Amino acid sequence: MKKTLIGLSVVAAFFAGACGGSDEMLEVSARFDDVGDLYTQAPVHLSDITVGKVTGIRLDGTQALVEMELDPDAQIPRDVEARVRRTSVLGERIIDLTIPEGTDGSGELASGDVIRETSVRSDLEDLVEEGSELLGAVAASDLATMIDEGARGFGGQGEELKGLLSNYGEIVDAYADRSKQLNRLIDSMATFNETLAAEAPAHEQAVINSNRSVAMLNEESERLQIAIESLNRLAVGGSQILRAHSDEMIRFFDQTARIMKVLAREQDSIELFLRWAPGHNANTQRVEYVEFNQVVQDLVICGLNDNPRDPARRCTGEGH
């Protein structure tokens, strides 16, 4: 109710100033995520009253910047909300200004101001709302009565037609419930689109990186082809070598298998050999050392190990 009173006061002020209104229009702007088929010279409405027009539409980054001229006599608050919508399901797109409830009295719009709060009403949302209003305006009982009265001219088929539409009220209620769900779905889609729009730079960078990767692959395609051909030649050469020496390799592996079988069969002997080999080597070295000492001891060196009393080890005398 408060919002309606504010709107009526603005409209009253607009008409009050119409007699001696100012010729200078306010130039303001607003940014929208999407404006659809909004066109230049499209009207700007406030409480269903034309208070201005669209003077320009251009791209500003990822948003559409809409420039407008507004009548200063309308005394539009600065915190007004701007929405792009259609006048009907098949009507033209306009800018609809809405004064929020509990306006903070931040003053009036002035030339150069930017309307911060903006939104876009989708065609599907308009269709759902108008469909709900249309079905809600016609009561099921009234429609059944109309059909009953009018059906007499169609061979008395009124009862059959009434039977077909006996649950019309349920259909209307169900449609009204579904319209709320559709509106929530539309809001969710709008949130999803806002999320995608926020990540648009990252998506753009990903596409750029993909293009760079494809370009690098194109540049390196010749080298990759050469490398693949080299690997193919290596595989062919290896296959030829295997085929040429397959008999030798078979014999080698056959001999290896036989050796392994012998080793497996003689494990006990191998174990005994490994156990006694260190002692055998030690004894062999000891025998060689003892025999060497014996040979050394058999030598007679005069003046060193000779013995005059032993004829076998005496340096002078008969027999020498």
Calculate the terminal CA-CA distance, rounded to whole Å: 156 Å
How many strand units?
Answer: 8
Radius of gyration: 54 Å
Distinct helical segment count: 8
Query: Mind describing the biggest β-sheet?
Result: 8 strands, mixed
Sheet/helix structural class: alpha/beta
Proportion of helical residues:
55-70%
Question: Average pLDDT, to the nearest integer?
Answer: 78
Shape type? elongated
**Sheet with the most strands: spatial strand order:** 7-1-4-3-2-6-5-8
The sequence of SSEs as H and E is HEEEEEEEEHHHHHHH
Strand content: 15-25%
What are the low-pLDDT stretches, counting only 5+ consecutive residues below 50?
A: 1-6, 16-21
Q: What's the short version?
A:
This protein is of the alpha/beta class. It has helices at residues 2-16, 123-137, 140-150, 158-164, 168-198, 200-244, 246-265, 267-298; strands at 26-32, 43-46, 49-60, 63-70, 81-86, 93-98, 114-115, 118-120.
